[in-house]
């Protein structure tokens, strides 16, 4: 993925340095439950936060500041995330104008380390990247990207040259994750998230899960639209990039994660969609580039 040399967004908040978490009475069991709920069963981060809120009610998180002397790796992570966010800003500003005759309002993106305060509660890095509709911010601990590369088969056993090449090769999969979370911001702007929340409040658990799946698949489709239009603007894709995004989508499918975690697959508990569904809807957005083609709520998924 070609990303260096383009505009870097000013909407990035760096909270990776200083401060950190001040724990008092934190339940380790509660954190483990929240981690398992997100990592292996795709539970909505906000639900996981609420589930652990009581057991971590005595914890305090000091707001952290940006890194005073970032390493080259840390600075590159900031530049990469800022560039991808800028790409989403430019893409969706254009798409909103052309397809919706509307003005796009960009989210903020918070980079943190370990733990962070958000409008949706105190978040642990183990929960992965997430979007909080309350404060309209995307939250990312870039250590997630390292974990992601390892999950995709990149280990520390390669030599430095090969590892560097593979790290770069995984950039588009990481950008897809950022674009997916920005997709949830679009759903907030379009009123979709509010409608889903109201519908889930009146639904059974299984029906609520199905609505969650449709919402997540739509965010995947929106990520595909971003890739489509950003490619037209910047020609940023390289050979193998789309395949890497497909591999990432496959490995965060509910069926893949459940099978790996428990050896069983329970479709009624899906909240993000199967591997096949996630790949399908990313490709739908990538091929079409049209918001109307991402209506997962009124189409067979």
UniProtKB/TrEMBL annotation:
The keyword Metal-binding does not apply. It is found in: Membrane. Its main location: membrane. The chain crosses the membrane at residues 21-41. The keyword Transmembrane applies. One of its GO terms (cellular component) is membrane. Keywords: Membrane, Transmembrane, Transmembrane helix. It comes from the Bacteria. InterPro entries: Uncharacterised_pept_Zn_put. It is a single-pass membrane protein. Residues 1-21 are annotated as: Disordered. Pfam families: Zn_peptidase. PANTHER family: INNER MEMBRANE PROTEIN, PUTATIVE MEMBRANE PROTEIN YPFJ. This is Neutral zinc metallopeptidase.
């Amino acid at each position: 993925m070609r990303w260096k040399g383009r505009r870097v967004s000013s909407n990035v908040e760096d909270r990776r340095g200083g401060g950190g978490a001040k724990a008092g009475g934190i339940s380790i069991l509660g954190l483990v439950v929240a981690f398992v709920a997100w990592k292996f069963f795709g539970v909505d981060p906000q639900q996981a936060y609420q589930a652990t809120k009581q057991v971590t009610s005595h914890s305090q998180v000091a707001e952290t500041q940006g890194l005073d002397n970032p390493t080259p790796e840390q600075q590159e992570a900031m530049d990469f995330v800022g560039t991808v966010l800028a790409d989403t800003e430019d893409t969706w500003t254009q798409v909103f104008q052309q397809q919706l005759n509307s003005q796009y309002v960009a989210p903020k993106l918070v980079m943190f380390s370990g733990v962070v305060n958000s409008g949706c509660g105190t978040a642990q890095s183990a929960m992965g990247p997430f979007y909080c509709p309350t404060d309209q911010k995307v939250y990312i601990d870039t250590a997630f990207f390292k974990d992601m590369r390892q999950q995709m088969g990149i280990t520390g056993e390669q030599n430095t040259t090969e590892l560097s090449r593979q790290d770069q090769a995984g950039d588009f999969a990481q950008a897809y994750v950022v674009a997916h979370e920005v997709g949830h911001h679009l759903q907030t702007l379009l009123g979709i998230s509010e409608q889903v929340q109201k519908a889930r409040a009146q639904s059974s658990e299984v029906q609520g899960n199905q609505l969650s799946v449709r919402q997540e698949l739509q965010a995947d489709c929106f990520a595909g639209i971003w890739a489509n239009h950003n490619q037209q603007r910047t020609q940023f894709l390289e050979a193998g990039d789309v395949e890497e995004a497909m591999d990432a989508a496959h490995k965060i499918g509910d069926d893949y994660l459940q099978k790996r975690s428990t050896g069983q697959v329970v479709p009624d508990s899906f909240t993000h969609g199967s591997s096949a569904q996630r790949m399908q809807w990313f490709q739908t957005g990538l091929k079409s580039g049209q918001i109307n083609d991402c209506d997962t709520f009124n189409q067979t998924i």
